[in-house]
């Protein structure tokens, strides 16, 4: 028999932005909050404590389809991302706003780039790399950096290894958009 839980939300009075969930077994589950299931539970005495994230019922799960960026030259930028970053065109338009839906090699992560004259194009060159960047897994960090610089990118942060073993480098593509290269010590996806 599966554990059936009642969820209570408790606000941490010392940190109003923090909430704690207390999970307790009950006989009949009512989905008051819409939460159907939990990733992992740890049995602590007679209490069950949540570890991980809440999940909606499978039929209500949401999936990110894409993230969109208004850019100055979507035709050239789309071509560059395909030729130099290995993106695949899923859909594109040849008329304004020249939308390009580009997916990575897994086919499950997608970005849209377009040039919409009705909306301001951000000054990507002025945006700090830690405020906005698009990260790609680097199989060979040094080789990928050299290859992208040859293709017109600019290196703005040399490769650095974090305490957890992940290595990151930052470049700007030819339009000033930040591309991060990352090699994870332990892959996350």
Give the CATH architecture of the largest domain.
Roll
Task: State the major sheet.
Answer: 4 strands, mixed
Helicity level, as a percent range? Answer: 10-25%
Assembly annotation = single chain
Low-confidence stretches: 26-51
What structural keywords apply?
2,3-Dihydroxybiphenyl 1,2-Dioxygenase, domain 1, globular, mainly beta, 2 helices, four-stranded mixed sheet, 3 domains, 12% helix, 189 residues
Topology:
Layout: E1 5-11, E2 19-25, E3 37-44, E4 47-55, E5 67-70, H1 74-85, E6 88-92, E7 100-103, E8 110-114, E9 134-137, H2 141-150, E10 154-161, E11 167-172, E12 178-183
Parallel strand pairs: 5-8, 9-12
Antiparallel strand pairs: 1-2, 3-4, 6-7, 7-8, 10-11, 11-12
Protein architecture, described:
- This protein has 189 residues and is mainly beta.
- It has 3 domains: 5-60, no CATH class; 63-121, Roll (2,3-Dihydroxybiphenyl 1,2-Dioxygenase, domain 1); 123-189, Roll (2,3-Dihydroxybiphenyl 1,2-Dioxygenase, domain 1), CATH 3.10.180.10.
- The strands form 4 sheets. A 4-stranded mixed sheet has the order 5-8-7-6, covered by helices on one side. A 4-stranded mixed sheet has the order 9-12-11-10, covered by helices on one side.
- The protein has helices at 74-85, 141-150, and strands at residues 5-11, 19-25, 37-44, 47-55, 67-70, 88-92, 100-103, 110-114, 134-137, 154-161, 167-172, 178-183.
- The protein is built from 2 helices and 12 strands.
- The chain is globular, with a radius of gyration of 22 Å.
- It is 12% helix and 39% strand.
